[in-house]
Sequence to fold (466 residues):
Amino acid sequence: MTVKLYNTLSRTKEIFKPIRAREVGLYTCGPTVYNYAHIGNLRTYLFEDILKRTLVYNGYTVKHVMNITDVGHLTGDRDMGEDKLEKGAQREGKTAWEIAAYYTRAFQKDIERLNILDPTIWCKATDTIPEQIALIRTLEEKGFTYHTRDGIYFDTARFPDYTRLSHQNLDALQEGARVEKNPEKRNATDFALWKFSPEGVQRQMEWDSPWGVGFPGWHIECSAMSMKYLRDQLDIHCGGTDHIDVHHTNEIAQSEAATGKPFFNFWMHGAFLIIAGGKKMAKSEGNFLTLENAFVNQAIDPLAYRFAAFLTHYRKPMEYSADAIEGARNGLQHLRNQVRTLQEKAGDIAAQGTGNAEFRAKFMTEINDDLNMPRAMAVVQELLKSDLDASVKLATLYDFDNVLGFDLAQVDQEEKLPEDIQRMADERLQARADKNWALSDELRDAIQDRGYLVQDTPQGTKVFKP
RNA sequence: GGCGGCAUAGCCAAGUGGUAAGGCAGCGGCCUGCAAAGCCGUUAUUCGGCGGUUCGAAUCCGCCUGCCGCCUCCA
Fold:
């Protein structure tokens, strides 16, 4: 089976071929940990999870590196010395280091709740300062840098293929359209590799460097870390679509300028989650929803978001609405109920291996076509509606779940009922035996109010948490 | 201004030349003491608008309308 992936570099779907035969190097841009991730951020990590699981499903081993940006980028060229982490620290009365540690944990909890597989390697920007400095020094030796009063900058005019990824027309760039421009920059697209700590200011995060005390620029960490951990396996680099024009363009420029070799063969970008009115979800827009407040606190299983995300292709903007989430929530619950029903009918599932080969091939065709999850989800429905034996269906579903990540094999693990719920269930059983329907219905309502489902089946009454 | 994207049923959406996937909601039925769950069936003569190319277009071309992203950090 071949995997086709849309490569932003060529703007076409290409047949994926890793540098090594069976092991893929994957780098995914991680969060800046100065606040909670919002569900729009999380959409991108879900896309990357599907990418990784699809590669694994195809028999590849994936060496996955994700960075944690725990040093603040400046909020703008002119905000001398103020960055998001230090600002967050001020806001919350903690140190920048505490802020970073706190939101790193929060992020890791979020991805765990979404069943996103952990990367092979987590790496922190602050742990690779020496590598970043070394990279900047190489660039300096090769003549790609220049000093300004506030830092060391990369001269993009020296890198001929600067717009390879962005396909921008540099003459038409409107520098300073939204922010005051830095008069010392030689070209509008030049960017800082190293920033000096402002005079008279003691930053919480600053390091010595050959150029003076300061902190790394906005893009250098990803170059340094991907080269450090993936070396000669620079296969796929992912991030949000907003990274194409600036962050990834600059990463390519500085990396290739330093090494003289191509940086990553595949660049993949996830589209935004948008909300009513078509606006992106963003911290700066003040419309951001976290997994915590939009799902966990609403008693909605976070996996409903996973389900929802798979109903839209990763390269298309996804409409967020309460109705859409309600639909996904119901869809996931329905799927789990179907699995429960199958489990009751199924015989030896293990004997079925990975299930039905025909459906497996169909499923694989879809995920291998640039991760077409909406179609893969349709294949799941087709399988469910087919007249295959329950054990075969279930084995096939469990196999698909290696990619889907809905924990379908776990739905049968019914937890023990709390004592009072169990007592009500017992009383209701007696009421039914007495044909006291009024009492029976009252008890059913009471149990359901507590979040449990009551089902009277031919095999007896079942009470469980949905 | 440049680059890029979006517009398909009540909602979320797939589909890039061959006559509209799938999910949710709704409706009808089976089952049930009634439900729930499950199952079966059903729901767009039509794809933002107007032209054009073609035997044939949601899909290609032109024009128009509306919306959005990036060009500052941002998934």
